[in-house]
Amino acid sequence: MYPYEDRMRAVKLYIKLGKRIVATIRQLGYPTKNSLKSWYREYVQCHDLPAGYVRSRPKYSPQQKRSAVEHYLNHDQCLAATVKALGFPSCETLAAWIRELYPDLRHVITRTNNSSPFRPDEKYQAVSDLCTRHGSAQEVAQKIGVSRPILYKWKNDLIGDEAYQAMRKRNVIHSNEEEGALLDKITQFEIQVHQLQLERDILTKVNELIKKDLGIKNLALTNREKTRIIDALRETYPLPVLLGVLKLARSCYFYHQSAMLLSDKYAEVRVTMADIFNDNYHCYGYRRIHSMLRQNNKVISEKVVRRLMAEEQLVVRLSRRRRYSSYCGEIDAAPENLLARDFSASSPDEKWLTDITEFQLPAGKVYLSPILDCFDGKVVSWSIGTRPDAQLVNTMLDEAINKLTGDDRPIIHSNKGGHYRWPGWLERIQAAGLVRSMSRKGCSSDNAACEGFFDQLKNEMYYVRDWSDITLEGFMQNVDTYIRWYNEHRIKMSLEGMSPVKYRQQLGIRI
């Protein structure tokens, strides 16, 4: 709270300075803008004028205001140039006078930041028009929509201060040497503008034809891609110029141009590869696609397959998510790890693996509980539900036990989750004569084969799609369809390029 004397001192100084708030605050060091305005209103309402006080006359007369505004309107409409020519007032005050006398005039530029509404290519074109004009610079400036000093400032930024000063001194007669130097500057600028336009056109064609970012470097392009860019721009620019900018040899250009005119001998293979990739959940890499092509009597090398997949953008998308953990603490003594990370089996129904994985969807959560056979990775049985309870794993186990024949008594390996230590699970294990085996606590690598199956399933079916518009029942149907495709159609390189079902059929094993 300021005392009365300080407030009066501030108000009187504010009136003396012509009601300039910023100047008053800078001189006194106080108060805020809003406080000074409220003190002034209180001062006017109370008419608390000291005896003999005479209001100071305005700093500028109406004639000065009008002459300054007329000078602004008749001389390029530039605030800074008008203030420099007259010596008064400030640019802000002159802008206020113009708005006061000509409220409909919208050409006053009061922008104080460094932003410009004009793009760099528009500035280049404006300066080019200025250098090659036949009329006055004012006509060029009015055509663009800027003032004449701004246009010359753009020119000064591009070709240097010397040429800018030479253009401003119109009344000085230049010598032949100075005129020649100025013409050389203009010629250099025109070459620079032409070079920038060429680089811009090249980047635009790269984005249109090759679908690469505008910031790509020329050295990152292949010779075939450079040839395509040159063919697209040959009608606009000479061939030697394009070859020099893209750093491509003339013989190399004509070689690739001739090669592109020939028919693509891999055209049919490209279509077949795309069909294989799209029909198999976008999860086949170059090895599996190469194996599928050989099965279709299309023999090409793996390197060619990799190159064609890169050109056709057949990329397998991978992602990692947090895994579900079903460990609920120790309930009773757990059995030993009988597999010891040996997931190989010489015959079916010798070693089984099981676990539970979780799918997080916008509609809710879904859980999958499968049993895998270590012999060929076939999913023996599986159950899908919305809750990871005893019914989920018991249903899966009952279905797998029903498929056993003869004296098969496989080892069933799981983690130490509570699902595999409840009474219902133990009773079914004992009744079927199965052998229990469990991983160590928090050691997922002890059940790596089952974890690998979950990783393949999610990378190939779950992560690559948007499930925001599907119900839980629809998603469970998709998981069921994938597992059936996994057993019957998905080829594995460890099975000589065959699916688990086809591999068993070839060996004569009952499915």
Automatic annotation (TrEMBL):
SUPFAM superfamilies xref list: Homeodomain-like, Ribonuclease H-like
Gene3D superfamilies assigned to the protein according to its UniProt record, in alphabetical order: Ribonuclease H-like superfamily/Ribonuclease H
Coiled-coil parts of chain: none
Domain Integrase catalytic span(s) in chain numbering: 344-508
Transmembrane regions listed in the UniProt entry: none
InterPro entries: Homeodomain-like_sf (IPR009057), HTH-like_dom (IPR025948), Integrase_cat-core (IPR001584), RNaseH-like_sf (IPR012337), RNaseH_sf (IPR036397), Transpos_IS3 (IPR048020), Transposase_IS3/IS150/IS904 (IPR050900)
NCBIfam families in UniProt: transpos_IS3 (NF033516)
The name this protein goes by in its record: IS3 family transposase
Biological source species: Serratia aquatilis
